[in-house]
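Journal club prep, shared notes

We agreed each person brings one worked example of a sequence with its structure written out as tokens. Mine is Beta sliding clamp. I'm keeping it raw so we can talk through how to read the token line rather than staring at a rendered picture. Sequence first:
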Amino acid sequence: MKIIILRSNLKESLSAVEKAISESGNLPILKNVLLKTYNNKIKIAATNLDLAITKLASGKIIEEGGITVPFSTFYNLVNNSDSERIAIETDNNNLIFKTDNYSARIQGVGHEEFPIIPKIDNEDHFIELPTQVFKDGVSKVLSAVQVSEIRPEISGVLLDFRSNNLKLVATDAFRLAQKTIGEGQFKTNFSQEFKIIVPLKTISEVVKIFSENQPIKIHIDGSQILFKNEDTELISRLINGEYPDYEQIIPKSTENEITLDKFQLINAVKLASNFSGRTNDVKLKVDEGKKVMEVYSASQYVGENNYLIPVKAKGDGVPEIAFNWRYFLDGLRIVDGDNLFFGANGSNKPSVIKSPEDPSYFYILMPIKNG
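Then the structure, token by token:
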């Protein structure tokens, strides 16, 4: 192999595949990155056997070929190079790295030894949508994912495909976030509805590495999922198991409906967090007939504080409800717009947080039980 590639192209591609590099010493080649010429492009790939990422980079190909080299060493050379033009060639199982004023030889392994990147057997069926739409949807639910060895089924994001929408759902049993992508926002030729659980690491990488300039395609095949566009592919195992019946958690109605300024509530929770107790609790209430929400917290070691926010309220008033302030703040920050809808059903039932203008997203949070 003999190629010339721009440092910026090479660095971007290596950064994209980095999270698929394995740290395990059981199979040393999984610490390597694959470089191989492919269809007039340079294929750069990594896998840890659960996740594989492939990136196609542009460059000048003088001789075809391939090699694998330790990712860490190679990435450090590229990252610290002060030349934009990098020449790479192979000499048996060595990679020779050259710039105008620097050269290095890295011991590698033949590309034939690299694990086979899995393929989806049937790429005919797909969901295709703008990458920005998918990334925005995923970003709204990620904070509710909990990585759990005891309950692996909640360690990822549920993709619940219906004939007319795609729901993205995450829960950690204390909160639940759901974003619905409507049928006008994607196209598909799937005829069967399905539910799959995508690992947190996998879907987080999709958000990071896929360009928003191209649409993204999603393919599913048994226990695997493939995300791809013109120059990037990410294939991953899915999480086995049955996702919780999340629709049973969603309140069908709310006893108290409150609309208020989102940023005031965020500020109130931030201030109250300084006085929260060991359970990270902040409390709120709306007295019957009053048009203010009281947000407060107290600690016997620090002190107490109180914040009043004007609200528009329907219902009999909200008794004192305590929330974990970190979870509460996560939900508030994700809601779009300046105004916030807060639906409460008492101090021991889940509350709903959403935007009055956007019915496609909501965040449900369980209160901290009194006593």
